[in-house]
């Protein structure tokens, strides 16, 4: 009886355990085969963390690889609002350290979110101060900050980025695709405390942005900006621009504007300070534009340098408008007309050529259409076609009125004369390099078109040298180096659409040395006071900039003399051989 | 026989599991070490970047100009004729004269006591 009873109990226990283990086996079977993928994903989520890997944004260098824009690492402060115990105390502490409004911090810290930004890209001293608070619920994330070691130098060219390092202006915007790189990602393993380990299940490495090498030269840019700054302040101008080109290649060696801004504090500056006026602002150039009329006259062969023109003693009627010269002239040769910048003489030349020829050369010199520089916001200028000309236009367009040009267009136009008649496409990007400094793209000089023949260019060079030696541009003369140039002074148009007598745009375009030009320069000063003549305001800037830049480039009167001697030696040697 | 084989397999599996666990813990240990070294490396890299930036700032023409202009002097590119180049090595002739002078001095120093500045009594 007892055994029978025990046997039943044993069977019962056995049956219970059998059922229990059966249940476990079924459960394991179910988990292993039916819940496998779901649980595996769940485990992965717990062990792995998805991390976006940020690429390094490319640096920007000048033509001698001097850094213009580099990346610095900065810490950005975030908060996890739920983990903060005493929010009000933290708000007052952070407000003092970060100089932030308490209401702003309150708005952030009382949000029902697991992550909120407090302040980004903080300085090291502020990070140290915040770390010393030892508060729970605060954390830092490393971010990359664009830093500009030269502050305001070439600010309009380089441009800047937003807080997320996306280009907003200048080169930073135009070549954003090259600079930004491509972000990667990784599934990293994390430990029980949530700490991310350098063990990954899957990783796609980020592709760093490419470095850009520009055509600008930091030293030339500095010289240009220093002199521009002086003229801007001395003449209390509204704005000023300077463009320096290599006339044979179209490379921009320097480009600057005033007013300007510090790139490291770009967000604090107004949009008017950030304008790259050398390419965005159009203005009536005045007499600087006479190089187009002169080139047309010489190229067509209708006018000769020694042809005489009567300049009507300073007053000449064109339709219902009376044209004046800044000082009365009688008979002048064509060369003297340009040297003395006679409006009447130039108009008479234009009347012989006719509007169609003038318009053809205006367009050929690149006015009225964008030159295609690799910078954002280039204006195309304003040029009227002959059917739209009024009866007075023949007395206005050839002397630089009723047309709108940019400083860059004027610099390109004078480069045409300097390089022997070719319109070159201006460019600012020289090379694109990867992080191993391997060149992956290179920009080469691009000839847009031949504008005038080499012979015409040579003849025009001599005339423009006369402008500096005998004419209105005497203040641009450099001792020991022959230079060519043209001054320009244009009245501005008032609100009523008429020319006003108290506001002018002064300009000077020129190149040096005359025989083998290394630089072409355009200087434009808007509303200088009290003097407003291009020959007084801008020509001295040309002299100063050109002499220093040529000195920097190794062109001095001595080297020119040496070259001349070498040429003469070669010529005599050639004669002896012959 | 069966029990023996069973125990052997059990032992083998246990050792295999322990080796696997040891390997995993080693991987994690190395990962932690790597993490620490990476942090140090990143810090050094950041410092290096910052120093490079500071060097660029302090050597930039804008900064130098700003410093010099404060003393009302204008910074200009010096002309080639105004630049005096200083070589790394001194000319041989100068070194010879120096040696000769030092030899003469040495002889005099042995003969005569060199002049010394004595402190006056207060």
Structure commentary:
By secondary structure, chain A is an alpha+beta fold. Chain A contains 19 helices and 21 strands. Chain A folds into two domains: 51-214, Penicillin-binding protein 2a (Domain 2), CATH 3.90.1310.10; 218-566, 3-Layer(aba) Sandwich (Beta-lactamase). Chain A has helices at 2-33, 36-47, 87-98, 102-109, 124-133, 155-158, 170-174, 176-180, 218-234, 277-280, 290-300, 334-339, 343-353, 355-364, 407-418, 454-469, 534-537, 539-552, 557-577, and strands at residues 48-53, 60-61, 67-79, 116-122, 138-147, 184-190, 196-204, 211-214, 239-245, 252-258, 308-310, 315-318, 321-324, 331-333, 422-424, 429-433, 439-442, 447-450, 484-493, 499-512, 519-526. In chain A, strands 2, 3, 4, 5, 8, 16 and 17 form a seven-stranded mixed β-sheet that branches. Chain A has a five-stranded antiparallel β-sheet with strand order 10-9-21-20-19, sandwiched between helices. In chain A, strand 16 (429-433) and strand 17 form a beta hairpin. In chain A, helix 11 (290-300) crosses helix 16. The longest helix of chain A has 32 residues, at 2-33. With 122 residues, chain B is an all-alpha fold. Chain B has a domain at 9-76. Helix content of chain B is 71%, strand content 0%. Chain B is elongated, with a radius of gyration of 37 Å. The model of chain B has no long low-confidence stretch (mean pLDDT 75).
């Amino acid at each position: 009886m007892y055994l029978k009873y025990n046997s039943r109990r044993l069977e019962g226990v056995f049956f219970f355990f059998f059922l229990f283990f059966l249940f476990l086996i079924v459960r394991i079977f179910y988990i292993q085969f039916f819940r496998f993928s779901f649980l595996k994903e769940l485990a992965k989520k717990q062990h792995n963390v998805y991390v976006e890997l940020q690429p390094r944004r490319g640096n920007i260098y000048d033509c001698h690889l001097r850094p213009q824009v580099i990346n610095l690492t900065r810490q950005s402060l975030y908060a996890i609002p739920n983990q903060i115990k005493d929010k009000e105390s933290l708000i007052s502490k952070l407000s003092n350290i970060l100089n932030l409004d308490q209401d702003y911090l309150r708005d952030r810290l009382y949000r029902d979110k697991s992550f909120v930004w407090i302040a980004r890209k903080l300085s090291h001293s502020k990070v140290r101060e915040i770390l010393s608070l030892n508060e729970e619920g605060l954390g830092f994330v490393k971010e990359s900050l664009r830093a500009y070691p030269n502050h305001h130098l070439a600010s309009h060219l380089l441009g800047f980025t937003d807080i997320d390092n996306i280009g907003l202006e200048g080169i930073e915007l135009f070549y954003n695709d090259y600079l930004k790189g491509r972000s990667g990602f990784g599934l990293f393993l994390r430990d029980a405390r949530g700490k991310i380990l350098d063990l990954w299940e899957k990783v796609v490495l980020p592709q760093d942005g490419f470095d850009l090498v520009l055509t600008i030269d930091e030293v030339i840019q500095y010289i240009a900006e220093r002199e521009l700054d002086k003229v801007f302040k001395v003449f209390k101008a509204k704005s000023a621009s300077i463009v320096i080109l290599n006339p044979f290649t179209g490379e921009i060696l320097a480009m600057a504007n005033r007013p300007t801004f510090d790139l490291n504090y770009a967000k604090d500056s107004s949009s008017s300070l950030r304008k790259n006026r050398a390419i965005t602002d159009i203005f009536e150039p005045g007499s600087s534009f006479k190089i187009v009329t002169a080139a047309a006259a010489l190229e067509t062969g209708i006018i000769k340098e020694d042809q005489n023109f009567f300049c009507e003693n300073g007053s000449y009627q064109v339709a219902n408008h009376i044209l004046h010269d800044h000082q009365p002239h009688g008979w002048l040769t064509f060369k003297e007309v340009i040297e003395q910048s006679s409006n009447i003489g130039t108009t008479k030349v234009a009347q012989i050529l006719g509007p169609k020829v003038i318009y053809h050369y205006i367009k050929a010199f690149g006015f009225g259409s964008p030159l295609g520089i690799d910078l954002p916001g280039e204006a195309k200028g304003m040029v009227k076609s002959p059917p739209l000309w009024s009866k007075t236009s023949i007395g206005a367009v050839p002397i630089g009125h009723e047309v709108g040009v940019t400083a860059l267009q004027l610099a390109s136009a004078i480069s045409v004369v300097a390089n022997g008649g070719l319109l070159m496409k201006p460019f600012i990007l020289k090379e694109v390099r990867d992080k191993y400094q391997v060149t992956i793209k290179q920009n080469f000089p691009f000839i847009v078109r031949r504008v005038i023949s080499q012979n015409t260019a040579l003849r025009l060079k001599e005339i423009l040298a006369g402008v500096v030696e005998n004419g209105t541009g005497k203040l641009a003369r450099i001792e020991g180096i022959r230079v060519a140039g043209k001054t320009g002074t244009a009245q501005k148009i008032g609100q009523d659409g008429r020319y006003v007598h108290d506001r002018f745009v002064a300009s000077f375009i020129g190149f040096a040395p005359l025989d083998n030009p290394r630089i072409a320069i355009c200087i434009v000063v808007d509303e200088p006071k009290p003097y407003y003549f291009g020959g007084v305001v801008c020509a001295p800037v040309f002299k100063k900039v050109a002499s220093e830049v040529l000195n920097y480039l190794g062109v001095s009167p001595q080297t020119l003399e040496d070259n001349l001697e070498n040429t003469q030696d070669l010529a005599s040697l050639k004669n002896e051989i012959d | 026989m069966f029990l023996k084989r069973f125990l052997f397999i059990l032992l083998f599996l246990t050792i295999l599991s322990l080796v696997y666990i040891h390997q995993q813990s080693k991987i994690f240990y190395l990962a932690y070490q790597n993490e620490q070294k990476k942090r140090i490396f990143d810090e050094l890299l950041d410092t290096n970047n910052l120093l490079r930036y500071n060097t660029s700032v302090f050597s930039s023409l804008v900064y130098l100009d700003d410093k010099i202009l404060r003393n009302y002097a204008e910074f200009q590119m010096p002309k080639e004729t105004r630049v005096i180049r200083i070589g790394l090595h001194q000319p041989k002739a100068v070194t010879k004269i120096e040696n000769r002078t030092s030899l003469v001095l040495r002889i005099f120093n042995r003969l005569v006591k060199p002049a010394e500045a004595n402190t006056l009594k207060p």
